[in-house]
Amino acid sequence: MEELIQIKDMYKIYNPGQDEVRALDGVDLIICEGEYVAIIGQSGSGKSTLMNMLGCLDVPTSGEYYLHRQNVAQLKDNELAHIRNKEIGFIFQGFNLIANLDAMGNVELPLTYRGIGKSTRQKIARQALYTVGLEKRMSHRPSEMSGGQQQRVAVARAIAAKPPVILADEPTGNLDTKTTKEIMTILKELNDAGRTIIVITHDDEIAEQADRVIRLQDGKIMEDYTNQ
Amino acid sequence: MGQIMEYVKMAIYNIAFNKGRSFLTMLGIIIGISSVITVVSIGSGVKAAILKDSKEKTVTVTVNQDKSADTQIITPEDMVLIKKRLGSRIKGVATTMPVYGTAYTNKGKFDTDIAFTTPDTVRDPYEKKLIRGSYFTEEDIKNAELKCVIDKEGALFLFGNLDVIGMNLDVLIDNKVQSVQIIGIRDTDPKVMEENQQAAKLYDMKMPLDFEMPYTSYEAWGGNVGINYSSITAYLAPGEKANRIGKEIIKTLNTLHTEGGESLFKKEKGMDITKYMTQTVNTLTTFVGFVAGISLLVGGIGVMNIMLVSVTERTREIGIRKSLGARTNSIVTQFLFESAIISVIGGMIGIVSGAGIAVLVSSLKITGISAKLSIGAVIIATCFSCGVGIIFGIYPARKAARLSPIEALRQM
User: Which PANTHER family did the record assign (chain A) (predicted)?
Assistant: First the structure.
């Protein structure tokens, strides 16, 4: 399988000096296309920092990050914005939908920032909402939808622009058991369809669904194993 | 370009979504702009009105007492010549001899000030206009008709109504009584009328009646008619300057009265308040404009504050947008357009309402204030509201755009 993500000797150090916090302490990681990876660890283990790095939301103190063989570790703000838009689809714990916009508008947003025209945008967004089973909720605002529905809108938004990587940060943290199952099923289906999925979670049950599990502790990778 | 339109659409969408807040933000600009427009419009209207009023409309030439023992030397012939010489540059020439007399009616006798004067007096710009009947004519002068024009207050006082045209009054001057016919009524300022009535009530004092009669009719009481006036007044045609007409009149008089030298006649000093008033009004307009400008500034700062609050409130939204690939410029553009659109719409509403208020104020006819919409003020206000939107929008917009996406997303 083609190599998608390669992280080499990555450090993220807060407050350098005596009280320094090594959120990432020499991480080496390779993720290939089509993988379904769960990153687990207790709070403070550095998994959120790693997620920020993977998502190009933050730059590391040192180390290299190759995404599609392009080193993105030290890019400028606008270049990072471009990478985020093109390469990564985010799913957040708190859904992070824009309250003003209806489901359609939210899904359209990354396409808008990519510069895609309105009619194409709407076609793609409709398709994505159809994929997550929300074709009847397109003109509903987030406040008019249940948590599960909101998260499905977020999933639709993440997949709409067809990014190679879908990055989910505790995607079911705010959901009940039933809707958790729904979302995980959608993620599984997306993976089966060939998307690379990285889920960050502290829930072992969620991690079990992934093909590969990476356990972080104190900014270091402690375990990296494949589920049977 | 297409991208920018998307951000403009986002900005419009956000403004429309937060209607209440957007309107409150606009309110500052609306009040600022409309007060500037109102104040400047009314200011220039008042200025125009004052300048119009303060222009001298008459010029009076008198006999110089230092040069002539006999001051009553202006004759009707002088008047005719002046009229001929100045032609259309004056509306008329009048000489008046005030005489004190008594009028008798069924109600008793009343003190009367009689002005023996010329028909042109009807054109006196400072006198009230005729509301009933007619003024006496040159023909009446020639025939020395015993006809009079009285003011409305006098008519009401003597007869209780205004249907008095054609009625006769006995007028006593110098122990001689003559019957005088009323041929016209002049209007009286209601304010003056009320004041006179109050004075009569309080002090048991009657204001003298005012009559105007042909100067030749003075002969009927044995007066010496036609050769003795100490002053002459010309009513200026529009656009004519008091000084120049005054000089012309003196020149004309000098050709007929050579005995007293060059300075036998002099022009009476007019009220030269034009310059002073212009200055005062300009100072006032500047001052009030300054105050209005401050309110604009306050409005602008209001927009900035709301935009800053909006940035803080929407930190998370900004984080989301950035995580989805919004560039710094996309966010700046969106927020800048939001504040610019709010300011421009507010500005337009402000211009319309300011002009409306100005028109309303002048239609209320408060002591003759009339507003003159100043194009300059409108242009300045428009530029200002755009400027406010952009300048006061930049800081919040940059603040919004520079947020790190993780910081912004962490915000709950």
Answer: CELL DIVISION ATP-BINDING PROTEIN FTSE, LIPOPROTEIN-RELEASING SYSTEM ATP-BINDING PROTEIN LOLD
